[in-house]
Structure formats: structure tokens, C-alpha cells
UniProtKB/TrEMBL annotation:
This is Amidohydrolase family protein. One of its GO terms (molecular function) is hydrolase activity. Pfam families: CorA-like. It comes from Aspergillus niger. Keywords: Hydrolase.
């Protein structure tokens, strides 16, 4: 079975782990699946373009790495710890040359990122704000999504 046969396939691991990290009563899975299948692919690149900057902030230093190809980002997802020891903040910045253009990350890598960091489903609304003309209400922080966990291990 390929992604063309089952487009939800790449998003399924993220959807399956949601109840373990977020209150299931606050997530409309049917609506979320619709966004992942129909809205999100519109705002992500259809080419193998990658431009993702990873910035880690520790007590005594800051490290940053730019991933500009599939192999580099794949290596990050498969070999590096999701949350290294001593890490205070991890920032993943996904580039777009303009907010009305697609983000430079493929749907597969976005699905991996959402799953790996257990990103709150409300972030999908922020993601969907890309790829269309900006409205005044969207230009502020009204689409900000912050999710603080009980153990303070991660915010998204």
C-alpha cells in the first residue's frame, strides 16, 4: 500500500499517539483528519525542498543547524534524541519565502515532526494560516499555540 492508495497513512502514527499526550475529549479526530488530508498538503512543498533550522538552547550555550536536504533532516529524525539531556528549549523553524507560499518541508517530514514532538492538534490551525493571503486578524498572535505539559518537558 502506498501513500497514494491511503493518503492518511503518513499521518496515522501522529493520530494514534494523540490520546497518550492530549485530552481525547478536546480533539475532533474527524475534523483533524480532514485538515491533514485536505488543508495541510496545500501549505507544504510538493517538491523535495527542505529548509528547516533547528536551534537548541541550553543553560550555557546555543546550538543551531540548518537542514537543507532530505538526507540531513532524515538523519536528524532517526539518529538524534528528540529532547537531548540538559536542553531547555528546542526551536524548529520551517522556512517559507513568503507566508502565501508553501513551507519548505514535505508532508512526510511534517508528519514525523508532529509525531516526534507530540504537537498539540490546535497547531494545525497555525499551519493552515500559511499558503494564503494574510488577514489582519491572522497577523497577530491570535494563532499562537503553546502547550505546556505537566512535567514541563516540552512546549509546542
Amino acid at each position: 500500500m502506498t501513500v497514494d492508495d491511503d493518503p492518511l497513512q503518513i499521518w496515522r502514527p501522529y493520530l494514534q499517539q494523540l490520546p497518550a499526550h492530549h485530552d481525547p475529549s478536546s480533539v475532533n479526530l474527524a475534523d483533524l483528519e480532514n485538515h491533514l488530508l485536505n488543508g495541510v498538503p496545500r501549505v507544504l512543498t510538493r517538491r523535495n525542498e527542505i529548509h528547516v533550522r533547528l536551534t537548541d538552547v541550553y543553560d550555557d550555550h546555543r546550538a543551531t543547524k540548518l537542514h537543507r536536504d532530505l538526507e540531513s533532516l532524515q538523519g536528524f529524525f532517526t539518529t538524534e534524541s528528540a529532547i537531548p539531556d540538559g536542553l531547555n528549549i528546542r526551536i524548529l523553524s520551517i522556512y517559507s519565502s513568503a507566508s502565501i507560499l508553501p513551507l519548505k518541508i514535505t508532508p512526510l517530514f511534517m508528519a514525523l515532526l508532529l509525531e516526534r514532538y507530540a504537537v498539540h492538534p490546535s497547531f494545525i490551525q497555525v499551519l493552515l494560516s500559511f499558503g494564503r493571503n494574510v488577514h489582519i486578524s491572522e497577523a497577530g498572535n491570535s494563532l499562537l499555540c503553546v502547550d505546556e505539559r505537566e512535567n514541563d518537558a516540552c512546549e509546542s
